[in-house]
Amino acid sequence: MTHANDFVALNIAILTVSDTRSLDTDTSGQALVDALTHAGHTLGAREIVKDDIYQIRAAVSGWIAQPDIQAVLITGGTGFAGRDSTPEAVTPLLDKTIEGFGELFRSVSYEEIGTSTMQSRALGGLANYTAIFCLPGSTNACKTGWRLIEPQLDARHKPCNFVALLQQKSRD
After folding, report:
1. CA 72, 59, 11, 40: dihedral to nearest 10 degrees?
2. Local structure of residue 85 (DSSP, 8 states)
3. What is the DSSP letter of 10?
4. Per-residue confidence of the chain (172 residues) as pLDDT tens digits?
5. Could you give the domains of the chain?
6. How far is the C-alpha of 75 from the C-alpha of 46, rounded, in Å?
7. Long-range CB contacts for residues 102-106, cutoff 8 Å, separation at least 24
8. How far is it, in rounded angstroms, from Cα 47 to Cα 88?
């Protein structure tokens, strides 16, 4: 039994959406890996896929179905460039959206990059008791996003967080 004051390490998957990055050049994905492991979580999986709706959807769907992956962090493909398609790939998979995540991300990001933040289509949601957060591809945007996500993936954060909900996945 987990008590409210206990930290719960989650298994988190990282997906980088890019037509050009490799594991060696993926600074955004690596920043997320470093952040989640520093926070005490476990890297459950990591993948890089092309900015293609069906490749993105296939990777995320696989993780949603795995009982040992409680969260998915996606970097890249959230802008307005021609091939940016992460929101279109992920949205149909969601059972519920976390409207406040995109709103809060853009609000905080405004302080960093001004009105350019309105081009961010960062989003969050839940699918099969899996938290999914879609972030822009820049390393700084991933660091900003993690500052917002981290407390919600910590069982000790009050008044609420997603951990108890995410733990239901492994029980079902």
Report:
1. -60
2. -
3. P
4. 455 579 999 999 999 999 999 999 999 999 999 999 999 999 999 999 999 999 999 999 999 999 999 999 999 988 888 788 999 999 999 999 999 999 999 999 999 998 988 989 999 999 999 999 999 999 999 999 999 999 999 999 999 999 999 988 766 5
5. 11-171 (3.40.980.10)
6. 11
7. 104/148, 105/135, 105/144, 105/145, 105/148
8. 19
Residue that is written with structure tokens 């896929």 in the block = 49
Which backbone phi and psi does 163 adopt, to 5 degrees?
Answer: -60, -50
Alpha helices in the chain (DSSP H): 27-38, 53-65, 86-90, 99-113, 139-152, 163-171
Amino acid identity of residue 114, one-letter, is G
Parallel/antiparallel/unpaired status of strands 96-97 and 71-75: unpaired
For residue 81, the one-letter residue type is A
This prediction's pTM: 0.94
Name the phi and psi angles at 159, rounded to 5. Answer: -85, -15
